[in-house]
Specification:
CATH topology of the largest domain: Purple Acid Phosphatase, chain A, domain 2
Helix content: 25-40%
Distance between the termini: 105 Å
Strand order of the largest sheet: 5-6-7-9-8
Number of strands: 11
Number of domains: 2
Order of helices and strands: HHHHEHEHHEHEEEHEEEHEE
Strand content: 5-15%
Length: 408
């Protein structure tokens, strides 16, 4: 029996799809939802007929085109079901986690007033942009900074110690009902650029394990000091395992997300600690009646040498406020990282970077920014009150000087 002749429509579709996906047969076959061998046969047939890419202009009403569309939709459905199953499997692997970490169930200490009237409110210690695994070479930036895993661990220890010290100055009794610790992404350096792949101290997976141990120690210590810890989590752009950041499944293609799931598994039975890991790029939560929106900040584009990142951040904040207002999810303060500059305004808070100044900032003549993380208090009546960066680098001894002086 002779082989049935391939319809011209399917052959043309194969040629078009092959060109659209950069002459990658595997990607083109996946896009059409057919086996690679089937796709290769259609492509060879199209080439034999002398067909050229025509931008996909084929008869959409032909039976063959409609059949191909059904096959593609079926393939997309199978991929979506497989992705959902994979996500649930990861949660099960890391400790039988249910979907509860993706649902906002705030602990009582951030939803009701403090137990004692003397409490200054709830502190927030914002952790983001650690870029663990990256190496910053001091000789390449005029010796203004240095960074590696050893220095990261030293700075983390200084961060917890300094934050507790500053909060102890505000309230010597440490009269806080708990602490909020947003994890804002870019916790690892990742391999998104060739220079990072070549110079990182560790690859992504070993770095996740290194960070896991460090963050377990931090969270344990904060729970000991403050009693309760609430951790809203979003992913950054550096931890991704895709060439470009995805709009779909952003979290599920990120090592940041996997790190958060490991941590949630570790503390799943600890009633003092609550994780909130939404599947989208933003985390919306309230401390008392003050509404926060946590995002990484990589969605914002632009900036210049005069105003720096303020332009794109303020425009991005405006767009998010407009979007959220349309779905009754208005917020008071947006908090983000990504820009490695500490900025605290009434409507937005931008976190510093634990990594500090690097070769990219130096080469682009960005202003020097010491390594820091943001710390502030939310009061049930006065909203955001005390605000302060926590500097984590070794402090240079200041020269002796009078506490105040006038130039002569």
């Amino acid at each position: 029996m002779s082989k049935p002749k391939l319809n011209n429509t399917l052959a043309q579709e194969a040629v078009n799809t092959f060109a659209k996906h950069g002459n990658n047969q595997r990607a083109a076959a996946a896009a059409l939802g057919i086996p690679r061998t089937t796709f290769q046969a259609r492509l060879d047939d199209g080439r034999h007929r002398g067909l050229k890419p025509n931008g996909g202009q084929i008869d959409p009403d032909s039976p063959q085109a409609l059949y191909a569309q059904v096959r593609r939709l079926e393939a997309e459905l199978r991929r979506a079901q497989a992705t959902s199953s994979e996500i649930e499997a990861v949660r099960n692997i890391v400790g039988g986690l249910s979907n509860k970490v993706a649902e906002l169930k705030p602990p009582p200490f951030i939803a009701v007033g403090p137990n004692t009237p003397s409490s200054p409110g709830v502190p927030t210690l914002f952790l983001s942009d650690w870029h663990a695994g990256e190496v910053v070479y001091p000789t390449q930036i005029n010796h203004v900074n240095q960074y590696n895993l050893t220095i990261m661990r030293e700075r983390v220890a200084a961060l917890v110690k300094s934050a507790a010290h500053l909060l102890g100055i505000i309230s010597p009794k440490m009269d806080y009902p708990g602490i909020v610790v947003p994890l804002g992404g870019d916790m690892i350096s990742g391999n998104i650029h060739e220079e990072l792949t070549a110079t990182n101290e560790l690859n992504s997976m070993p770095t996740v394990l290194e960070l896991y141990g460090v963050l377990v120690g931090i969270i344990d210590e904060l729970a000991r000091i403050f009693g309760h810890v609430f951790l809203p989590c979003v992913t950054g752009n550096h931890g991704r395992d895709t060439r470009k950041i995805w709009a779909k499944d952003r979290h599920h293609t990120s090592f940041d997300w996997l790190l958060y799931q490991f941590l949630a598994r570790h503390f799943e039975k600890d009633k003092r600690i609550t994780f909130y890991i939404p599947d989208g790029p933003d985390a919306y939560y309230k401390i008392y009646q003050h509404r926060y929106l946590l995002t990484h900040g990589d969605q914002f584009r632009g900036g210049d040498g005069i105003i720096g990142p303020l332009g794109p951040i303020i425009r991005g904040d405006h767009k998010k406020r407009s979007r959220n207002a349309q779905v009754d999810m208005e917020y008071d303060t947006m908090i983000c990282g990504h820009w490695h500059q500490y900025i605290h305004l009434s409507r937005l808070i931008v976190n510093g970077a634990l990594k500090g100044y690097d070769e990219y900032a130096y080469a682009n003549n960005f202003p020097f920014e010491p390594p820091s993380q943001a710390l502030w208090l939310t009061h049930p009546k006065y909203r955001i009150t005390y605000r302060m960066p926590v500097y984590v680098d070794r402090q240079r001894k200041p020269a002796k000087a009078a506490w105040v002086s006038v130039p002569k």
